[in-house]
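Continued from yesterday's entry.
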Amino acid sequence: MTQPAEQLAADGATIVRGFLSPEDAASLRRTVSDIYAFMSSCESISHRLLAFHFKLWHGVWLRPLPAFLRKARPDLAQRYEQSLGLIEAQVERLFGTGWRFFPKRSYFRQHVGMVQKVPWHIDADAASIYRVAGAAINVWMPLDTVGADLPSLDYVPRSHAVMRTVPMLTGEEKYRDDAFVDGVGTPATPQLDVGDALVFDQYTLHRTQQTGSRKTIRTACEFRFVRHAAPTLQGLNGWLRYNWNVLFSPQGYVAERAKGFLGLRQKGSSTA
């Protein structure tokens, strides 16, 4: 059988059944559920950005979460950190040493109804992770059974190789459409149970599976890891392509300055 690290390198994604044991997965599920319940009960959340993410899209940002819980609910802080330790150990066991948990881009995400579906994107530009390290992965763990009634993730195997050669998107709109994805490859949709994980590269195309209803509620964990020991040529390549796009794309800096210059000339001509 292909090992997870080998499949991740070849396909840009790998499904790890039983990433956590049934007992550990159930404990993580209870902990996340209790965190959501506690934060929902708070009249105000002291950390501004933690409150912002929670109110806007039912997201829990993991960077400030431990400090917040240590003050407000130390029992929940301890349970969360125990689960995180198990996940870090599994990443090292399955994918090798050098991977470091990256809470700045890690979240609990509660998908509610049909509104919070995320279109096709890659983490490298949508989350600007390429600036941090040449190698980054997302350990995506649903806390409900997904792929049938509740939405899993769609992803495109081997798209990570293609997307490393494509200019990164700039501005607020960093999503790709179906026509673009059809030219890259055929999507796959894993069915995952609680405790399973889909682990994928920062350049792998993925989106929320297009299923569910207005009453759909699905909670998942996005634990991102980075490896600074990886060669930095990929990071430099991404930085160059991103900034080239910022400057010279049809919506880039040069094009906008040219439009402004032409607008001023036309205005000057009309008033002459």
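--- second protein ---
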Amino acid sequence: MMKKMHDLKPQYFQWEWQDRVATIRLNRPDRKNPLTFESYAELRDTFRAMVYAEDVDVVVFTSNGGNFCSGGDVHDIIGPLTKMDMKGLLAFTRMTGDLVKAMINCSKPIIAAVDGVAVGAGAIVAMASDIRLATPEAKCAFLFTRVGLAGCDMGACAMLPRIIGQGRAAELLYLGRSMSAEEGHSWGFWNALHSADDIENEAQKMAARLAAGPVFAHGITKTQLNQEWNMGLDQAIEAEAQAQAICMQTQDFERAYNAFVAKEKPVFEGN
């Protein structure tokens, strides 16, 4: 069943919708936007619902008040975790992992626009996005070892090496140090750097460009980018052959052909 999400009214984050682009901001700027048990769960459920959204084609996850996300709230999450039994702890860590899985499987491109702090779970949210933009002031840290935990949190040991390489990922995950914006850009973690005044506008421009494209095909691209991690080359080539054959049945493919013949720019409608 398809679902309309433009009028979503979340309790624990800000939601904006315009021209098929949804914008998400965590809404505790006074604390550098930490996550809580409730906001984790609400974000997870929102991205799960996105699979069925007929009115959202692209998501922008952006900063608020000069910061992206400071990770799990020290008082609302970290403190209570020290008093939980193993069953409760595992339920929590599975929930946080489910947020990443929901982002990966939501079928919509996600653009992270990061200013200021993106640490802990905030770094993971940026990592799990498809395209990552940052300001020169952005500080990104997978700081789990600095609080006595392993660096293998929410898929970091699987995803981060694929983005920046094994050695660089190992350094960040062992030391928990901040990755500067310049490092992140040169390593391929950030797609581009923009000033704090420009970053959100640049993210929205990219989102508008994606939303104006063949959005059904974008969903196929996202699926293949993620599923092909676990495929051999022969499997991947066959999977892409099948995926592309599906896209060749869309009206957008025919629109592109007709526009080319007419020497016009194609207008895609997502079907």
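The first strand starts at residue 13 and ends at 18. The longest helix spans residues 86-104. Will compare against the first tomorrow.
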